[in-house]
Amino acid sequence: xxxxxxxxxxxxxxxxxxxxxxxxxxxxxxxxxxxxxxxxxxxxxxxxxxxxxxxxxxxxxxxxxxxxxxxxxxxxxxxxxxxxxxxxxxxxxxxxxxxxxxxxxxxxxxxxxxxxxxxxxxxxxxxxxxxxxxxxxxxxxxxxxxxxxxxxxxxxxxxxxxxxxxxxxxxxxxxxxxxxxxxxxxxxxxxxxxxxxxxxxxxxxxxxxxxxxxxxxxxxxxxxxxxxxxxxxxxxxxxxxxxxxxxxxxxxxxxxxxxxxxxxxxx
Length: 267
Known about the structure:
Layout: H1 3-8, E1 13-21, E2 25-30, E3 36-38, E4 41-45, E5 48-50, E6 64-69, E7 87-95, E8 104-117, E9 120-127, E10 163-166, E11 169-171, E12 174-181, E13 191-194, E14 198-205, E15 208-213, E16 225-229, H2 236-242
Parallel strand pairs: 2-4
Antiparallel strand pairs: 1-2, 1-7, 3-4, 5-6, 6-9, 7-8, 8-9, 10-16, 11-12, 12-15, 13-14, 13-16, 14-15
């Protein structure tokens, strides 16, 4: 019997939930009372329930909420700070009396927030279709470069500018390493990476090896190795002098500073 026939007949559904954090970590859970094996992964029984999947014309209101036991291992990623990598969720569904073991995907999106209440936690997710809300045209006529530093259009290899620091001290969101001593502001607008999966944006760099981050690292110790990547002011001077990448500069540095429609004579 086909999946569709069982949906409208006498089948009983079993759902499995695949959470993925980047490409390095995944969690496989099921609301069924027994483990479920799918694509070589074992989905473990967990106290888990979800709201109904809604379809409407307002994508931003198509949020899906799940309730899960508060000691589920997946929630460890949200205890101190939310993960810097995107965590996705895919919900698969089959029927227990289906001899063909036919799974279908019933929902896919990403995790937004986690809230704790008593013995359970609530996970809010948004569907993958929310990406359609993003504007298609991002570039504008501006003096500064709109490219993402080390991104595809910037074309810089971040490893060519990487400075690995050995942590000498840290306090809350300030990390210090002797390798980062240099010009003040060198790392402003850049980022640090710890243990390959904790990314933190740089708020300030005093030039003395002390870098202030937007949020602290988790598990950092004196002697830890942290990768540092300098930032960019997105102006022509930084692009040319600091990175020698002026050929990929995306701004218009010589655009007139006066508005030709502002009523003043510009010639």
